[in-house]
């Protein structure tokens, strides 16, 4: 048996699960099949022999394909699926095998799909992967380019909506801005103790590889460790300004008017629980940024 045949057999063993996952994310059998097909094509362009965990690799690739499809759907401002019933499983054009259709139908009523369609793409991916497929938040976070803490919050917000409970009120924007400004002031002034007070003891900072030249994102945990890192960046803080990062208070560094990096904060009960440091040009292009101070 040649390598291509073995690769195809391994993929077929995962197809039903991938299709069920994609259907829950997209609410459309035809789009789910397209996502699975794209995942297969990407596998064909990859050296499968070097993939230790094929199931995990396929989950990651399929989720990212679905996320791109959801984002494209939003950017085209298509009519939401909730306005017209999600595509049912029965009568699919490709006539999927009965066992596959059973997997799709299990626990996926039209009502659930309609609710899922009210979620943002990131919320939908986080909820489906974690709550329906038991994928850990640490594995989901890189797929949606968020910290594990932020990913957990997205899934929690989605879960409340799916259960018919309105999401908790958004955090006070004024409080968020005060916390972020206090963080910047403490960093500029080298006030280590003030920084530690602003940070949750279990705060998580995640920096993408464009911030620090490493093969994978850097993850730092703990208030004192994060505060020490902020002290090391005190010089950069002098060219940093407060701003809105995707509508939430954050920090923006743009020396000479050229965007260099942003810090996105997760703030809970007045303390910082998560910081995402983003410098990758492609990620920066997808962020809505507005500088608040001069």
Regions with pLDDT < 50 over 5+ consecutive residues? Answer: 77-111, 165-169
Rg over C-alpha atoms, rounded to the nearest angstrom: 21 Å
The percent range for strand residues is 5-15%
Number of domains: 2
Could you tell me how far the N terminus lies from the C terminus, measured between alpha carbons in angstroms? 66 Å
Helix and strand arrangement:
Blueprint: H1 3-26, H2 29-44, H3 54-75, H4 98-105, H5 110-116, H6 121-133, H7 137-144, H8 148-162, H9 173-189, H10 192-198, E1 199-207, E2 218-221, H11 223-232, H12 234-237, E3 240-245, E4 248-253, E5 261-268, E6 271-278, H13 281-285, E7 289-291
Parallel strand pairs: 1-6
Antiparallel strand pairs: 1-2, 3-4, 3-7, 4-5, 5-6
Précis, in short:
With about 290 residues, the chain is an alpha+beta fold.
Structural notes for this entry:
By secondary structure, the chain is α+β, with helices and mostly antiparallel strands. It folds into two domains: 3-162, Butyryl-CoA Dehydrogenase, subunit A, domain 3, CATH 1.20.140; 173-291, Roll (Nuclear Transport Factor 2, Chain: A). 53% of the residues lie in helices and 15% in strands. The chain has 13 helices and seven strands. α1 packs antiparallel against α2 (29-44) and α3 crosses α7. The longest helix is centred in the N-terminal third of the chain and has 24 residues, at 3-26.
């Amino acid at each position: 048996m040649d390598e291509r045949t073995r690769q195809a057999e391994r993929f077929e063993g995962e197809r039903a699960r991938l299709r069920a996952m994609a259907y829950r994310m997209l609410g459309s059998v035809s789009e789910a099949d397209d996502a699975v097909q794209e995942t297969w094509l990407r596998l064909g362009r990859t050296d499968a022999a070097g993939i230790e965990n094929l199931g995990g690799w396929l989950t990651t690739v399929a989720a990212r394909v679905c996320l791109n499809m959801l984002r494209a759907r939003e950017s085209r401002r298509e009519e939401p699926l909730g306005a017209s019933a999600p595509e049912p499983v029965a009568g699919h054009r490709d006539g999927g095998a009965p066992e596959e259709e059973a997997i799709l139908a299990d626990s996926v009523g039209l009502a659930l799909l309609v609710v899922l369609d009210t979620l943002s793409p990131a919320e939908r991916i986080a909820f489906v992967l974690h709550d329906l497929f038991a994928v850990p938040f640490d594995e989901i976070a890189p797929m949606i380019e968020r910290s594990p803490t932020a990913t957990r919050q997205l899934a929690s917000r989605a879960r409340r909506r799916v259960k018919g409970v309105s999401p908790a009120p958004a955090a006070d924007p004024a409080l968020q801005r005060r916390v972020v400004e206090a963080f910047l002031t403490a960093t500029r002034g080298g006030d280590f103790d003030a920084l530690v007070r602003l940070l949750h003891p279990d705060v998580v900072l995640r920096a993408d590889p464009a911030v620090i030249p490493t093969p994978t994102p850097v993850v730092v945990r703990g208030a004192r460790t994060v505060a020490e890192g902020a002290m090391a960046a005190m010089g950069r803080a002098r060219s940093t300004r407060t701003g809105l990062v995707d509508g939430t208070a954050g920090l923006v560094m743009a020396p000479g008017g050229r965007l260099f990096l942003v810090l996105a904060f997760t703030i809970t009960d007045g303390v910082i629980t998560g910081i995402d440091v983003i410098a990758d040009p492609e990620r920066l292009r997808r962020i809505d940024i507005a500088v608040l101070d001069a």
